[in-house]
Specification:
The protein is of the alpha+beta class and 174 residues long. 22% of the residues lie in helices and 35% in strands. The radius of gyration is 32 Å and the shape is rod-shaped.
Amino acid sequence: LDRMFEGYMPGFQLPMFRRREFAPFEMMRRTMPPVDIWETDDEVKLRLDVPGVEPKNIEIYTTENNICIKAEMKREEEEKTGGFYRMERRCGSFERSIGLPASVTPDQAKATFKHGVIEITLPKAEEAKRHVKKVEVQSEEEQMVGSKGGQMTQQEQQSHQSQQSQQSHQKKPK
């Protein structure tokens, strides 16, 4: 909002939108890592950036339609140089529960952790997988050829096949 008002009234700033007064919201945004979710024909995949979190401090629970990710960060830094002493503690945690775009098989879920990034692979349940079936296209002539709503008797099928065979022989160049 500050930028919006800055364009109309240079130098104007709403005191309630100053950073330090909204620090708790900024901290909450930082502790809730964004999640990338995508699906393939056979899997649902998630990726989270969790810098500073050790793999042993990550818990992942999943059901057929939902995943819950919990993580906690604890870090202490100490520096002693001459007459200077500095000690900092950082800690934080988050918990995210996310609805999945397709049903998955929780027993086959896998998670990997590398360079502060968690990647989770959830195989789709069989009924959620995309099944591709080729649909044959028939011309209107083929649909109109039989009686009984497009279904041909055996005799009509033989007659139709012989007609097609004769037509194809007539079209061949000599």
